[in-house]
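Structure, all two chains, one model.
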Amino acid sequence: MNDRNPLFFVVLSIICILSVLAFLTEPPLDVLYGYYNILTHPGRLISDFSSIGGVGAVLLNVSIMGFLGLLVIQLAGVSLSGPTFASIMTIIGFSFFGKTPVNTAPIVFGVYVAAKLAGKSFKNYLIIALFGTAFGPITSYVANIPGLHPLVAILLGLLLGMMVGVLLPSLAIAMLRLHEGYNLYNVGFSCGFLGLFIASLFTAMGMELSIQVEWNTTFSLILTAIIPVVSLVLIIIGISIDGIKKSVTGVRAILKLSGRLPADFTDLVSPGAAMLNAGLLGLAGSIYVMSIGAVFNGPVIGALFTIIGFGTFGKHLKNVWPVVSGILAATLISGKSPTAPGPLLALLFGTTLAPIAGEFGIVPGIIAGFLHLVLVERTAVWHGGLVLYNNGFSGGLVATFIFAISEWIKANIKKR
Amino acid sequence: MQHKEIIVHLVSEITNYIMEQSPSRMVISLHNETDGLHLSAMDDIQRSDSELKKMEQDLNPKVRPELSDYYGTMAGTDAISAARLNLIGWQIKHGYVSRTTEGTKVDLWIGSDEYDSKNFSRKKNQ
């Protein structure tokens, strides 16, 4: 690992600190026992690993996953930049609720096989492989099917995970064209689409796929502090790389970008400004969670890590706020609590639609956010929680809807 | 993407870019060989030095294999939104932008790793 860019050292430092914290919070044996519980859990939406395995075990899972993700990027020979930083932070985030090394490895291997089948290098599909780990629960769900011999179930789970990985590149590339880059979590959209078929097949075979919510409501100082600390570190490093004046100018330049895929802020502006932007987003998200009195549990931290990650690859305060406002408005109008799992995660992950506000303006952004909340709780049922990026699936549908209409208006009405 | 598909996408994206300024003339020329191709697009729009520089920068981005075969496939698929030359840049070996007496000329070169456009053979009658 000889990558010398600042993003690499930030990610590596976060992973190392979390791994040390894992064993400082609880006795090592408790951590390992908790980790066993996490590894053997199906991990479908919403499975908060901080309550299933405990704080120490979830931090251990997160640090192992982060390290493996970083290793895959290094082995592929790719430098950390906007998209890879976004993908590694998303992996770290979702390792708080659903991803484990066991359930994600077959998917990455499947994408590797797809790359070889297409005569390409693995690095060409690296982003798809990393984000494709959203399908982790499909491996662990099948591996836990009751009535099957455990060895058979595990082999079936690994095989299905690999098959999903082989299918993902074709779908991800095709789905990208549906919304033309206005949904940042495109692999989530693709996984949701594939998950719809797989869940339907499972249901037809009489398998149980009802959504169950495992949501930690216990306050933990360590879990509460992670995101604000990581955000502040990113802000400090971002400013120290570019200097205050240049980094502020850089963030202003980022705010002018629509964020439509692929908008690598580290390349389009500078790594320092991108890190400052990511830190500001993380801090804003933390302030929102604290202000509504929600608990920093696994899924909430996962969502905030994802926001931080995409702070270098499409999201900034200017294109995020209209979408967030739309989701909050829909939450309040429908009489839901902003601290309830669905609306809270929808608000944080719904920022996947930020490019719509960035490209088409505030009103379309608010409408997109509103539609997202309406749709997102329904889409989880469609794939039976087998896909972790449910908001990416819903966001893809909303982005496709809005993109289709705006294109039609541009092509027909504005001509007159 | 297959060879033919790449050409179609590149032509579409570069056409989208040129048509944004509503030229009265546009010529697209393709010279296709087994190990590489040269695509040339000319219009009658006079562009500023800074715009030409920006075009050339976008057409010659850093090598990003992790983006080219995934996000790069969006090149030429959206004919209504603003064109993005960086999507072309990830697909090609290099691109040149030059001023002509009438307007602007964009040269795009594609080839395998061994392909060198300096050795590109062009028959005298072409």
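The mean pLDDT of chain B is 85.
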